[in-house]
Amino acid sequence: MLKIAFDPIYAHPLPEAHRFPMLKYELIPGQLLHEGIISQENLFSPDPVSEEIVLWTHEQTYWEQLRDLTLSPKDQRRTGFPLSARLVERELRIAQGTIDGCHYAFEYGIAFNIAGGTHHAGSNWGEGFCLLNDQAIAANYLLKKGLAQSILIVDLDVHQGNGTTQIFEHNPAVFTFSMHGDKNFPFRKERSDLDIPLPDDTGDEEFLEILTKTLPKLIAQQKPDFIFYLAGVDILATDKLGKLKVSKEACKARDQFVLEQCKLNNIPVQVSMGGGYSTDIKDIVEAHCNTYRVAIDLYF
């Protein structure tokens, strides 16, 4: 059974002025339910992750500033959000949803978090709408619990996963692969284990050619026993922030290829959704829903 972490707080943590980027978190499950692709049984609501687990990834001083709502105004502006207790709870629930998804992935091969992909959060900073790094927290959880020994993070969001890269910079058990827009946020990049910066206007053929040549080699070389996939749809040509020229069809083909590689190699995969900022919310929701459609066709 496909299990998907979703909680209403994913979509409603913010004042109205900040809500547009969050609308997709209620529209995606609504669309999948409407199509009959999933039922309520597929959805689960995670609890907040524990402070102990947060501190396996994030520095204590930074976490306490989030928890106690004492993050400086400058650091709050860096996140893009006004800090609130509800926002911190949202991040804690997203992180636990990704951890829970790992357990479901071991059981069913794959699991999703409707939110997540908060890859700009480093060990001691928040940035770019990310406060706590859900996939990094989950990766450290798997390592700490002895549930995985070699992890591959496949980050195909249009923005480099700088926070994830910084967190695992000196950890050989986690290989970070980021394929992203070269001239895009974050403008100060960290160094992933493998970075593939793409020029502006990269289109379908080039994007898919690079991915299909790279990922199978990485899997063969690294032999991961768990994969985290960040499936951002801000690679779309319609995206306001992306600068690439990828179609919805090629974005779906991207997901198809990544998930086929996971299934072919019998590697459990947890998927977090990442970014999407197209002007028309329908483009964002459709591209994200395609990721679920591909997964259900492949696995179920």
From TrEMBL:
<protein>
    <submittedName>
        <fullName>Histone deacetylase</fullName>
    </submittedName>
</protein>
<dbReference type="Pfam" id="PF00850">
    <property type="entry name" value="Hist_deacetyl"/>
</dbReference>
<dbReference type="InterPro" id="IPR037138">
    <property type="entry name" value="His_deacetylse_dom_sf"/>
</dbReference>
<keyword id="KW-0378">Hydrolase</keyword>
<dbReference type="InterPro" id="IPR000286">
    <property type="entry name" value="HDACs"/>
</dbReference>
<comment type="similarity">
    <text>Belongs to the histone deacetylase family.</text>
</comment>
<feature type="domain" description="Histone deacetylase">
    <location>
        <begin position="24"/>
        <end position="289"/>
    </location>
</feature>
<dbReference type="InterPro" id="IPR044150">
    <property type="entry name" value="HDAC_classIV"/>
</dbReference>
<dbReference type="InterPro" id="IPR023696">
    <property type="entry name" value="Ureohydrolase_dom_sf"/>
</dbReference>
<dbReference type="InterPro" id="IPR023801">
    <property type="entry name" value="His_deacetylse_dom"/>
</dbReference>
